[in-house]
User: What shape does this take?
Amino acid sequence: MAEPFLIGESMTGGYGAADILHGCTLAVEKGQIAVIVGPNGAGKSTAMKAVFGMLRLRAGHVKLEGEDITALTPQARVAKGMAFVPQTHNIFTSMTVEENLEMGAFLRRDDIRGTMEQVYELFPILKDKRRQAAGELSGGQRQQVAVGRALMTQPKVLMLDEPTAGVSPIVMDELFDRIIEVARTGISILMVEQNARQALMIADKGYVLVQGANRFTDTGPALMADPEVRRSFLGG
Ligand SMILES: Nc1ncnc2c1ncn2[C@@H]1O[C@H](COP(=O)(O)OP(=O)(O)OP(=O)(O)O)[C@@H](O)[C@H]1O
Ligand SMILES: [Mg+2]
Assistant: This one.
């Protein structure tokens, strides 16, 4: 089998003396959606940081399109086509929506207006509010700003840590629809979600992470159908 488009393989590491990740593996194929679920404190965000280069790994490696990028800084990974929306502090609240999008494109030297128009097409409300401070927006709109900012780098892989945190079920459904749209353009999505059922429903691949290790890995629908996964992680 060919190598996945992006893979964090057998990742072991943490923030200090104790490891948080224990041989954790996450991967996503081109244009597909991979979803990571698991209890609070399982290490989901830590695993995302590791894939993006914000955590020094003691063992394991990260590969993008077959190239070992384990030693690269997050900035260098952005240049390679990776974008990451962290779980918290993912927008500049005092800047306008448009300034946030411009910040997303800071590495680009070409004309960014076409990409900005694409972001506004994906999230029309952001165009209406483009001169407003991002901090004045609703939770769902802020998440759109964060995703839009990440898309401004024209990434090959979009990594999202709980993009629907704190939004209503309707807004969550809309965000998931937009994420599916993004994946259909060929961008790979690697995302952590606490709305496990809904997220697994749209997942080509699902990962259940527990205590920094892979507990279950399968297609989204297969995980949803697994009685043990349902009982332990999806509330029955
Ligand atoms: N910056 C940090 N420094 C030290 N320890 C940390 C840091 N961030 C997280 N941890 C610890 O690492 C473990 C995993 O945390 P992590 O945030 O990765 O979990 P998570 O699965 O994303 O949880 P949640 O569902 O609450 O977002 C926890 O024990 C946490 O206390
Ligand atoms: Mg987290």
About this structure: The chain has a mean pLDDT of 96. Strands lie at 6-13, 21-28, 33-37, 59-64, 67-68, 82-85, 157-161, 188-192, 205-210, 213-218. The domain at 31-41+73-205+218-234 is CATH 3.40.50.300 (Rossmann fold). The chain is about 35% helix and 25% strand.
